[in-house]
Amino acid sequence: MVAPTPPHLSPEQRERLEQLADAARLRMALYPSPAPPPARHRSRSRQCAGGRPNPWRTARGRRRA
After folding, report:
1. Contacts with 46 (C-beta within 8 Å, 6 or more apart), sequence order
2. How far apart are CA 58 and CA 55, in angstroms?
3. Which one, 5, 43, 46, 63, has the greatest CB density within 10 A?
4. 8-54, pLDDT tens digit by residue?
């Protein structure tokens, strides 16, 4: 659905607007937007967000051994 052109535009501005709209339609037809990449499941890291190892997991791992 196309919105009507505003009446306050001059004929030159209206012509330019139509040219831009045509160019946008042509670009959409020629270069469709790429499909998003497939979702990946993150593997859980052994580190905290700050880059240090998770102390709870480290202590838990020591007790087992």
Report:
1. 53, 54, 57
2. 5
3. 5
4. 889 999 999 999 999 999 999 999 888 888 887 666 555 556 666 66
Tokens matching residue 29: 């037809």
Instruction: Name residue 22's beta-bridge partners.
Output: none
Return the sign of the alpha-carbon dihedral for residues 8, 10, 15, 21. negative
Rounded to an integer, what distance in angstroms lies between the CA atom of residue 43 and that of residue 29?
39
Q: What pTM was computed for the model? A: 0.43
Burial-class residue 18 by CB neighbours within 10 Å (0-12, 13-18, 19+).
exposed
